[in-house]
Design goal:
globular; about 140 residues
């Protein structure tokens, strides 16, 4: 869901309908799980509502995106209100469910019951195959 929220926040001119639908499906799914588990949540959070993710942590993630060559139309300062407006819909439930199942901790994913180090994803080296050799006729 963060990937979708980041795309919507940083690249508003790109097609959005499928990304918005995927993001909404994600947080609706979390809410369905919460309903089944009896977990309370705000069904209509304000876009400026509280987040655990700080702006400083957001900037660390943005730096990682830039290192990987992710193109952006907006600056981090411009994108942050849009990103947080999306994330407020799922952060609390995603973190609660991850804590409840003691999921492997990753950046931006909240605390766990068992204290272990956060595991940052490793981006594989982009090794593309060599083009086939030219064959003359």
């Amino acid at each position: 869901m963060d990937a979708a929220a980041l795309r919507l926040a940083f690249n508003p001119s790109h097609p959005q309908s499928e990304v918005r639908m995927a993001l909404r499906a994600g947080f609706v799914c979390l809410r369905d799980i919460a309903d089944m588990q009896g977990i309370a949540y705000d069904p209509d959070p304000h876009p400026d509502g509280p987040l655990e993710l700080t702006y400083e942590d957001f900037l660390v993630g943005v730096a990682r995106m830039r290192e990987q060559g992710y193109p952006t139309e907006r600056s981090p300062e411009e994108a942050w209100p849009h990103f947080r407006g999306w994330r407020v819909n799922y952060e609390e439930l995603a973190q609660r469910l991850a804590r409840d199942i003691d999921a492997v901790p990753a950046p931006w994913s909240g605390p766990r019951r068992t204290p272990v180090a956060i595991r940052t994803p490793v981006t594989p080296v982009d090794r593309r195959p060599a083009p086939p050799p030219f064959k003359s006729a």
